[in-house]
Every structure is written in C-alpha cells, then in structure tokens.
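Entry 14. Structure prediction run on the chain below.
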Amino acid sequence: MNIPSRLLPAALLLACFSAQADCDYDDFPRMDGMLVSSLGDNVQWNHAAMNGRGFRVAATLEQVKAFYADEWQEAVDFTQFDGWDQILHINSRCMMMVQVKAQNERFSYGRMLLTNPPANGAGDQPLGLGMPVPPGAQVISDMRSDDDIREGRMVLLLGEDDLEATRAWYEAELVRQGWVAEGRSNQGNAFVLSYAKGRELMTVGLIRADGRTQILVNRMDR
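Output returned:
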C-alpha cells in the first residue's frame, strides 16, 4: 500500500453525509475512447453498495491517473487497495472512485464506482467494526471489496493522539490480536506498518497533518 500524497480532509469527507446526493454516471468523467460496460455490485462504502461500471481504455496507468487528477483538480486523492490503483473524488453530492490496473504497455482496465452515501446513522453496524480502531479515533470511511478471489477492506480514521503514540498503539494491539509484524518504514512524518496472519495481510499507514493523525488501515487476503 502506498500512503497517499494527501489524505482527504475530514471536512470534505464528512460533507457527503449531510448532502442530498443526486449523482449518476452521466456525471462521471470519461476518457476519449473509453469502453464502458455494466458491472455487478461487489463493493461497499460505509455499508452502501457502490454501483459499478467496468472500463477499458487505450491509455497507460499514469495517463488515466493524470486525466482524473485534471478533471477533479484539488478534490482528488490517490491510494492503492486490494491490488488496484484508486482515484477518489468526493463532492457535496456523492463519491466517485476509479479503480484501475495496467493491462499492458498501451491499455488499462478497471472499474468506475459511484455511491450516494447514506444519511447519518444509517445502518445498524458501526463503521470500522472488526478493524483495529484506537480509542477516541473517528472512522471517516469504511470500504469493502469482495470478489470470488479476494476480500479486502480499507478504513480511514482520524485520531487525536500523536504519531508516535498511535504507532505504538497499533504495534501493541496487532500483536495482541495475533498479527505478526513483517515490516515498518518511516517516511518523515509518516509510518507504514505491515502485518500478516494466516492468509491475511494488514497494512497501517499513519500521517500527521493539521494537528491530527490520519490512519489508513488496509486488510486483505493474500
């Protein structure tokens, strides 16, 4: 997992919950020559199914990312999840995401995902349930991606504790839960922690910004 160059500000993410969303695929930017087809629902964001479209396009992975970076300007974020490069955009109406992989040197393929987030309090299951959430941390986003081959989950949180305290909490908590440490890297004001348990992998990315610790937890099957 790569730590994104900038995690989405909490205000931008939370704006969706109170908005009256009204997005459809006519609003989704498409590259010239992009071939789009229907896709079954196998992704959830905050317990809401994300409608999907598959696509194939004569463009490299970097060209696809550059196109959406230009289309969505400052309201865009890049992550990796479950083997996909992800391009995320949230506005006052809905959430749009592109998941993309390189097919070869000339073509890329992937899926376009769109959801209108549920209202506050929608659903009985708390966000982040079953994932390692530090005391006092706020769960901003909870994404699941399940298919016949692999199940994955990615949770974005905001914590009040500093970077070192949050890192120490995860290192102790994950060992307590039976996870085995596989690696740790320090990138200035960021940490990446990697763990394994049986057939599962977990990566925890930590960034300190704007006086809070931003936490990205990625759990998936091997």
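Residues 24 and 114 are 7 Å apart (CA to CA).
Filed with the rest of this week's runs.
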